[in-house]
């Protein structure tokens, strides 16, 4: 394990039970040698998927009081910044101000902005955070949106290759984001058809695609991609774990072999492989639970019997602790390396 | 590393920067294979030793809202409970109610109560928490007070062997605490004189003594002890780290070799050795810092130049991340095993 002198300032949600937000991100970063300063934007009993949760959101005033004291005490000196779920625009604006200050003070600070807004077509933050995120994008070194968040930020529905190209161009050119990692986009036929042979899956299972795109000074971006099998059912905190691992493995100073790998495709390969391996042991574990702990989603039954949903959620919490050797492992078995997608920008939809 | 199916509910303070309270306890427990549910009793920028900190305390109402939602969602099923810093009596009473309920529901649950109240003669909680802690003591499987907290709980000033015996008797017999670990008591001459030869240090350095005492059904308790060199200056979070490690290594079902070792002396040996090793690398690191980062305590100068104190504190934050191999290591080099103190109860002061 590399022991770095690096310090991450992580700003996202806190839940008492289970692994989303900071609970999914901080432990992996610590295992990989980072000191982590942990700002909690909410303090909840559990994630929202359970249907009921207790706790409070940190107000913008509370966040600012913490930030000001850290400033006063000279404790605001992270080498990396990671921001995730912030529930409202006022709080997010406080974080935006902090990010701006830190970036001005230390331009080489690596900022991974995870614009956590929603998933699968559903927004789970107040809509007024969207313009704040757009303003923050130019501060980011890399962003890790899911496909819905890309659509929300760029206002481009991703339904063919041309729209994917357009969305990436907007993020790189209009919002000046140097590195974009689209962590998981369903591998629909239009996307499958566009993929180079080297990346296409060879069986009929369902797959997700991970895409990294790094802008270059004088041309279109360098694009890499890799597929990963979709595991059945929904797991919470996956994006938060992925982003933490992406940040942990991102080493922009490192010499890599030309177009075969960029610092961000390298980091995405490790994040993708480790996240998938943790998901596999989580899925395996959930399969061993008694039947009442793993009743499939059924909106009607879930509504009439809330514990049905609660128990399913509990059985699908990420097995981070049991998977810590996966997270720590520097030599990955089955590393799913992102492959160059050289013709990406030449393709016409 | 043993991967357990055990889950710790940890209830203590949270700081953004540095390692006290939950930040000192949760990561070690996770490294040692425990899932940890994390309730934060305060959300501060940094520990109080910096002189200034920003943030808020969780109210009893906020704590109860979280506890109730966890109850509703069937998420209150820890195999172990760890409670530390809770700033006020109302919040502590909420925690006491929770501890009582959990213990009734699962009598074999291991409860490590760390009655965090103060240090070195100074109380840093509201005085009205003291009677609440006294009421909670009978719920505990083990407690880990420092000498000042023993004095506060028992109202016995520890100034000779008779008073130490009296204090332990009060904790075991009046408060029905089965296991007491006195993590660090200065090895004053009266204590040195009382120690068996096997435990006495052989040089003139300053030492602290760690004492474990386990009650037995039909007689006085079994006492073990070990010395550890005192490192210069003050480090924060040491007690919180020690308690977490004590809990992590406490395995009451395990067969041990009679009076040579009890489950609690075994756990204290590991907690003491690992905590000391982490302190050593923390001390070594602080010695490498530039001079302005390690100005010795001087109340007058510290008052006129607050950053003097801040910088000293920052340079003395526990090196938990850099010491994670120490925490994880199952085979300890230089394990300071607590030794039987067989004549403890026979000694007259």
From TrEMBL, chains A, B:
Name of the protein: pyridoxal kinase
Residue intervals of the Pyridoxamine kinase/Phosphomethylpyrimidine kinase domain: 95-182
Organism domain of life: Eukaryota
UniProt EC number: 2.7.1.35
A GO MF label: ATP binding
Family: Belongs to the pyridoxine kinase family.
Root EC class: transferase
UniProt record, GO biological process: pyridoxal 5'-phosphate salvage
Family matches, as InterPro entries: PM/HMP-P_kinase-1 (IPR013749), PyrdxlKinase (IPR004625), Ribokinase-like (IPR029056)
Annotated Basic and acidic residues bias: 286-308
Keyword line: ATP-binding, Kinase, Nucleotide-binding, Transferase
GO CC terms, sorted: cytosol
One Pfam family named in its UniProt record: Phos_pyr_kin
Location of region: Disordered: 286-314
């Amino acid at each position: 394990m590399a022991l770095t002198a690096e310090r991450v300032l992580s700003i996202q949600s806190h839940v008492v039970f289970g692994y989303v937000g900071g609970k999914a991100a901080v432990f992996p970063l610590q295992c990989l040698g980072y000191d982590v300063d942990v700002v909690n934007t909410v303090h909840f009993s559990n994630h929202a998927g359970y249907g009921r949760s207790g706790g409070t959101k940190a107000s913008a005033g509370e966040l600012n009081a913490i930030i000001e004291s850290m400033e006063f005490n000279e404790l605001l000196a992270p080498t990396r910044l990671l921001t995730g779920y912030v529930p409202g625009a006022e709080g997010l604006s406080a974080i935006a101000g902090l990010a701006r200050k830190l970036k001005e003070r230390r331009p080489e600070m690596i900022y991974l902005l995870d614009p956590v807004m929603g998933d699968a077509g559903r927004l789970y933050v107040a809509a007024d955070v969207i313009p704040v995120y757009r303003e923050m994008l130019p501060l980011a070194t890399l962003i890790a949106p899911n496909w819905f968040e890309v659509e929300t930020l760029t206002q481009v529905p991703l339904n063919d290759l041309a729209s994917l190209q357009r969305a990436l161009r907007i993020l790189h050119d209009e919002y000046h984001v140097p590195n974009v990692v689209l962590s998981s986009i369903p591998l629909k036929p239009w996307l499958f058809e566009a993929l180079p042979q080297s990346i296409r899956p060879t069986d009929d299972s369902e797959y997700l695609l991970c895409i990294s795109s790094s802008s270059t000074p004088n041309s279109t971006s360098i694009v890499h991609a890799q597929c990963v099998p979709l595991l059945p059912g929904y797991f919470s905190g996956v994006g938060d774990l992925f982003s933490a691992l992406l940040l942990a493995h991102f080493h922009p100073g490192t010499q890599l072999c030309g177009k075969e790998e960029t610092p961000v495709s390298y980091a995405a390969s490790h994040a993708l492989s480790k996240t998938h391996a943790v998901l596999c042991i989580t899925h395996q574990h959930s399969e061993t639970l008694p039947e009442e702990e793993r009743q499939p989603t059924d909106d009607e039954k879930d509504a009439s019997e809330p514990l049905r949903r609660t128990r399913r959620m509990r059985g699908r919490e990420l097995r981070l602790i049991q998977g810590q050797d996966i997270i720590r492992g520097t030599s990955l078995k089955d590393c799913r390396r992102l492959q160059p997608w050289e013709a990406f920008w030449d393709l016409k939809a």
